[in-house]
Amino acid sequence: MSQDPRAARSATPYWWEAAPPASLPRSPLPAKVDVAIVGAGFAGLSAALVLARAGRSVAAFDAMNPGEGASSRNGGITSGNIRPSLDSLIKRFGKETAYAIEAEGKVARKFLRDLIQTEGLACDYKLTGAFSGAFGFDQYDAAARTAEGLGKRLGIDICAVPHAEQHSYVGSDLYRGGTLRMDIGGLHPAKFHAELLRITLAAGAAVHDHTPVTAIQREGETFRVTTAAGTVQARQVLVCTNGYTDKALAYLQRRLVPVRSRMIATEELPPEVMARLMPKGVMLSEKRQMGFYYRPSPDGRRILLGGRDSSRQGDPLKPTLRLRAGLAEIFPELENVKLSHSWFGNVAMHRDMVPRLFEHDGMLFATGFCGSGVVWAPWVGSRAAHRLLGAEAGKSAFAFRPPAAIPLYRGDPWFLPAVLKGFTLQDQFAMRRARR
């Protein structure tokens, strides 16, 4: 049976071509550690790095190859988005917390830039700026007002881009203007994880891959961490599993919903096409709930586009076709372009839709990044480490109560197709209004 010509050549992440996740040399488990970390993605490694350099004995455990989950599958856009609007944050958490969350985004993006530059991490990082397209003039006017307020409050370089000027950033007629924010860029996520792993191991932290944690029990002032390879006694425990949380952490699993996010990569495009469609090489997104995020590949030869995937089992063709249709909607000339890769990974959503650092039963959790983990996972992971050290740097606007449990949910997101369909209908209604 021949492959559908609309499908991608490969179902593995494009990023793995240059930096495939790999197993580490096997090492025996220590009997005792100061800190056991569950998860060796961006958050877990960022925490392990801080702790190891502070002289703590650290063991991080991952059920897969380090970074094989979301850390090496995402779009590599350093957005640091917070999904609820400022008004929604104020209503939910109060004005002081809402403004603190907003302000911490600026600090977290700078933290990531400084980490990459100071540590010399070779991950194709570029501070390109990011354009977000608006649908209809009403949405553009609202986005322009939001950008003006954000620029004044935080002193960041952000502005409205009217429809007449949007071709300077994206070669598409789909939008009616948008906003440009210059403190956002792009990196190669698999290379970033590989480099973060390198410096974390060099700092003295131990990372045990293919070693899932099966149980954690509190024993007085310490914890018994049971893994597939044996048991470790830990003075402190940090959980950073995010979208790959399983039933061994049932308390967290009831609060996080794993949502598939899928990406496609085109085959290499002619230089003149890339120059026309992405003239400044900025990161790109849309102002709709089921919209797409997209970008040039680090070498500037392909377009990578991502969005939500409502499938729950296997690797069906339909989600790839949805992204292909979205790419053609933005760039009609790419309707028949060949795809080199189509892949998915889990992001972790929850009822608050705000990243979180919280404690439960003596353990610390750094999780719930809601699709913006490139910025938030290293930041919240590092804040968690400082919190375990009792340092002032452990303070964060995200350190408050745990996300609420989801009724009738025990890890199987049976309701997701209906939820995503609802978002799609809302977008369709908004698009109809935008055409008036």
TrEMBL record:
Keyword Oxidoreductase: yes
GO MF terms, alphabetically ordered: oxidoreductase activity
Keywords for this protein: Oxidoreductase
Keyword Lipoprotein carried by entry: no
Protein name: FAD dependent oxidoreductase domain-containing protein
Source organism per UniProt: Sagittula stellata (strain ATCC 700073 / DSM 11524 / E-37)
GO cellular component: cytoplasm
Pfam families on file: DAO
Domain FAD dependent oxidoreductase, residue spans: 34-386
Classification lineage: Bacteria, Pseudomonadati, Pseudomonadota, Alphaproteobacteria, Rhodobacterales
